[in-house]
């Protein structure tokens, strides 16, 4: 058993570069503890390992689990990062909200090229397949959990996905491992727990050996999905445009080009576009809303659909994804900024964006000096007069530059000491602050 699991993990890791940093997502449960032990037992891998534990705060035992993970990593001599998160269910279930919070924590700590290893196993795969089947999922949903995928800057790899939970239990017993049990795993009110404890045991008893058959079917569905995605990829690329708006996904979907495609392909192209941004496949109800409410919306309407941590919204005949947290919020207090000749970039309070400050010899721009940074929502009623042009309201600037509605209230602006609007960052500088060899400002994602 020891050799089999080690070989299974190493076979998955063989596709990675020999020096690629590895992170283990450690919950403290059986699966992740076995995975950590398998990796830490190999000197060639141990030096590349870091561990991240996400403290959700959902259980009265959450502190005890975090302490367990700290002790386990201290005893193993492996670096641990423990990240506390706040789970806000809102319109989504607690399980999905917790997943979103976890991945936000992973985004915060993992760097470009890092690999996140999770302890998902074959029984998780079958449970996920059944849950999605019961919810009426199509090919994307029934493909269940991928062995690997990209998530933003890093890769997610699940080296135990072909291993059954019973094999993990046998390994843990052989190695005298200890772990913690999440008491919610016993709660049969959760669909996954009911499947695990009520439905599947008698099913496997009635059909011994069929678990491998179900796993083969899932593998075939995954291969079918890969073929379909590869065939659709050229069409999907034709429908997409690059997007560099802050707090917004890096591509938009052009509705005119989408609607030129056969009607039966359009839902698949939308799913594939969403998948590129690490979103779960939309449900049938969500897809119905996209085609009934979002796509045909009039230009002066702004219907929204929340998909995980993103909002889907139509603007200028395109579909965009933007963060549910909308940047510089109007209720933020005024902050002072000093812009000198060698001013550095200014991180903004949302944690996702910045004001990029540059100076190019011979280019006019903002006069260096002391300013107050405020969101555009505080500037209603103020005008700005760009050098050599008529005065403009912010509404005119938004329309002229086609600024999406989700960015307008929080767009960063600068006021001078007299309370006059000096600049709308990246869009306009008032003539009273416009100088030769001035500063060029832009509003960007970090």
UniProtKB/TrEMBL annotation:
The kind of enzyme this is, by top-level EC class, is ligase
- Enumerate the InterPro entries for this protein: Lysidine-tRNA-synth_C, Rossmann-like_a/b/a_fold, TilS/TtcA_N, tRNA_Ile_lys_synt, tRNA_Ile_lys_synt_N, tRNA_Ile_lys_synt_subst-bd
Q: Which SUPFAM superfamilies match?
A: Adenine nucleotide alpha hydrolases-like (SSF52402), MesJ substrate recognition domain-like (SSF82829), PheT/TilS domain (SSF56037)
List the EC numbers from the record.
6.3.4.19
Domain of life the protein comes from: Bacteria
User: Where along this sequence does the record place binding of ATP?
Assistant: 27-32
Compartmental location: Cytoplasm
Query: Does the keyword Nucleus feature in the UniProt annotation?
Result: no
Assign the protein's first listed, main location to one coarse class. cytoplasm
Q: What HAMAP family does the database record attribute to this sequence?
A: tRNA_Ile_lys_synt
The free-text function statement in the UniProt record for this protein reads: Ligates lysine onto the cytidine present at position 34 of the AUA codon-specific tRNA(Ile) that contains the anticodon CAU, in an ATP-dependent manner. Cytidine is converted to lysidine, thus changing the amino acid specificity of the tRNA from methionine to isoleucine.
Q: What is this protein called?
A: tRNA(Ile)-lysidine synthase
Source organism lineage? Bacteria, Pseudomonadati, Pseudomonadota, Gammaproteobacteria, Oceanospirillales
What's the name of its gene? tilS
């Amino acid at each position: 058993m020891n050799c089999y699991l080690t070989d299974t993990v190493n076979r998955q890791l063989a596709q990675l570069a020999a020096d690629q940093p590895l992170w283990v997502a450690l919950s403290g449960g059986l699966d992740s503890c076995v995975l950590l032990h398998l990796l830490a037992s190999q000197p060639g891998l141990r030096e590349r390992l870091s561990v991240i534990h996400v403290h959700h705060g959902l259980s009265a035992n959450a502190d005890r689990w975090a302490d367990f993970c700290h002790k386990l990593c201290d005893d193993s001599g492996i670096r641990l990062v423990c990240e506390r998160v706040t789970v806000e269910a809102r319109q989504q279930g607690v399980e999905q909200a917790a997943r979103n919070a976890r991945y936000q924590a992973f985004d915060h700590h993992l760097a470009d090229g890092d690999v996140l290893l999770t302890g998902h196993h074959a029984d998780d795969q079958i449970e996920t397949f059944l849950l999605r089947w019961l919810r009426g999922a199509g090919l994307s949903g029934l493909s269940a959990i991928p062995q690997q995928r990209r998530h933003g800057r890093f890769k997610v790899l699940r080296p135990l996905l072909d291993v059954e939970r019973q094999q993990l239990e046998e390994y843990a017993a052989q190695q005298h491992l200890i772990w913690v049990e999440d008491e919610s795993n016993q709660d049969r009110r959760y669909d996954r727990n009911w499947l695990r404890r009520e439905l599947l045991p008698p099913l496997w008893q009635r059909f011994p050996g069929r678990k491998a058959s179900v796993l083969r079917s899932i593998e075939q569905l995954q291969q079918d999905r890969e073929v379909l995605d590869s065939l659709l990829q050229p069409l999907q690329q034709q429908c997409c445009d690059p997007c560099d708006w802050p707090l917004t996904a890096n591509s938009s979907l052009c509705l005119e080009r989408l609607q030129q495609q056969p009607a039966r392909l359009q839902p698949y192209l939308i799913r594939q576009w969403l998948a590129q941004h690490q979103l779960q496949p939309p449900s049938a109800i969500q897809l119905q809303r996209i085609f009934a409410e979002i796509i045909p919306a009039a230009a002066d309407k702004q219907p929204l659909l929340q998909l995980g941590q993103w909002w889907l919204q139509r603007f200028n005949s395109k579909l965009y994804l933007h963060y549910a947290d909308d940047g510089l919020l109007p209720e933020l207090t005024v902050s002072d900024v000093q812009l000198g000749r060698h001013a550095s970039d200014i991180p903004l309070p949302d944690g996702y964006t910045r004001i990029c400050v540059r100076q190019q010899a011979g280019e006019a721009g903002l006069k260096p000096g002391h300013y107050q940074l405020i969101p555009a929502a505080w500037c209603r009623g103020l005008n700005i007069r760009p050098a050599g042009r008529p005065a403009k309201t912010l509404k005119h600037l938004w329309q002229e530059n086609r600024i999406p509605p989700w960015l307008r209230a929080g767009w960063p602006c600068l006021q001078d000491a007299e309370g006059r609007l000096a600049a709308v960052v990246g869009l306009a500088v008032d003539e009273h602050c416009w100088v030769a060899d001035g500063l060029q400002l832009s509003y960007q994602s970090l």
